[in-house]
Amino acid sequence: MAEAFIVDALRSPTGKRKGSLAHVHGADLGAHVIKALVERNDVPAADYDDVIFGCVDTIGALAGDIARTSWLAAGMPLSVPGTTVDRQCGSSQQAIHFAAQAVMSGTQDVVLAGGVQTMSSIPISSAMLAGQPLGFTTPFAESLGWRERFGDAPVNQFYAAQRIADHWSLSREDLEVFAKESHDRALAAIAAGRFDREIVPFPLPQGEFFMDETARASTLEKMATLQPVDAAYPKITAAVSSSTCDAAAAVLVVSEAALKRYGLTPRARIHHLSVRADDPIWHLTAPIPATAHALKKAGMKLADIDRVEINEAFASVVLAWLRETDYPHERTNVNGGAIALGHPLGASGAKLMTTLLHELERSGGRYGLQTMCEGGGQANVTIIERL
């Protein structure tokens, strides 16, 4: 089978909710990373076969196929198409998978995969709740088939995060210690300049916005004073949850023929890609079986993996994964995760891939694994080999 290679990966800085990127149109944020990626690489823009973007809640400024709109907003050729993918939080990781599969099939040679999310203007679940009466909680509530199978069990991320914490005997303090470590790692990475190579500063009237603004110094004492998001979920506070934010990311995936045609240097090879699912009521546990499945398919062991990026939707999700896999925490999310650096939904998959690639290059590691929990109880897994 033909192989797929990553030539480049970059991202915008992450703007906190109502922060520096709050008033940037989604198409312009997506265009920012598209334009930078095309300009940095020696492939004529007209030679791109497709643009695949992840995005969730595609309403308002994110509606109308934001992949295509972002490409056009970047001033790129009219001849190149775009399509938008929604696999919930894994949308842009799935975009990378689709790009790699297109290259592996031999039907395309140059594909730009990425994602964008502007959560300041379009909060999480906006599309789900649009036009629904107050108190509406899931898009499945009126489905007879769904109710027959799952009854009235809540499809609720906070319920799932609490349930995971209880099942794996994780205390609120355990979650807060993990969350503090995420912030500490992120602040240390920023101070050391570890993100400098992967971020493309965004121009603003007041000057360039060049670094993530979501990480913050905190203490366990302060975290302990926070109220739960709901009395029914006493262990789940804002401190142990991913932060909402605005960001975009892009990855250039090409074939071996394209490497030769344009004289490109590959930075990584897509070693494995897969997606699996688990119980949608548990909602956030799929990275555990998905990781086991991916390693079996790839003929690998976790000991072969030098770095892991797993999305920190909630602290309990990653702690349960660490406990089940026995993978070292010191090699997982080494520069912090979404609790500190934000979870821009449809952009998170490409954002994590960008960080994983750069971290493998910084550390000299060979194999990196990326996974994340996704709505509906799903999880993508991508294993890359640094070249």
UniProtKB/TrEMBL annotation:
SUPFAM superfamilies found in the cross-reference section: Thiolase-like
Keyword Cell wall biogenesis/degradation: no
UniProt cross-references to InterPro entries, sorted A to Z: Thiolase, Thiolase-like, Thiolase_C, Thiolase_CS, Thiolase_N
Keywords per UniProt: Acyltransferase, Transferase
All copies of domain Thiolase N-terminal, residue ranges: 5-256
Entry-linked PROSITE patterns: THIOLASE_2 (PS00737)
Domain Thiolase C-terminal intervals: 265-386
Family: Belongs to the thiolase-like superfamily. Thiolase family.
UniProt-recorded name of the protein: Acetyl-CoA acetyltransferase
Protein source organism: Sphaerotilus microaerophilus
Name of encoding gene: atoB
